[in-house]
Specification:
Layout lengths: L1 E5 L2 E4 L2 E3 L3 E3 L5 E3 L8 E2 L5 H5 L4 E5 L7 E2 L1 H10 L2 E5 L1 H11 L5 E5 L4
Parallel strand pairs: 6-8, 7-9, 7-10
Antiparallel strand pairs: 1-2, 2-3, 4-5, 4-10
């Protein structure tokens, strides 16, 4: 469960994280996540998350929604039958919390911008 998400931090199950991160469907997290191209999200950036076979990937695109999934990522996920929800962090947090009890969900959060 994501408890809070603010500029530069996110609290998941009582633990505060202060760097961009990935949440896998088994709920373990990978801190210090970086993208190859700043505010563009590509398949290479979340390859291990895709391999973990989620039904849904939620991309927290930043406080102001500046991180954008690229077209190729959308195509790749569609081919694999994975739903992508990309939205600003507050909305992404709500979507994640709503879906985790019903689906196999992974997520990635850009904590600034």
């Amino acid at each position: 469960m994501i408890e809070t998400c603010e500029f530069g931090s996110i609290v998941i199950d009582g633990k505060k994280h202060t760097s961009d991160l990935i949440i896998y469907p088994d709920r373990h997290t990978e801190d210090g996540w970086r993208r190859k191209s700043g505010h563009r999200l590509s398949g290479d950036d979340i390859g291990d998350l895709i391999k973990s076979e989620p039904e849904v990937i939620i991309a927290g695109t930043g406080v102001n929604g500046r991180m954008k999934p690229d077209r190729e990522l959308r195509k790749l996920l569609a081919q694999k039958g994975i739903t992508l929800i990309a939205e600003p962090n507050q909305n992404a947090m709500k979507s994640y919390n709503k879906l985790i009890s019903a689906k196999r969900v992974g997520a990635c959060f850009h904590l600034t911008c």
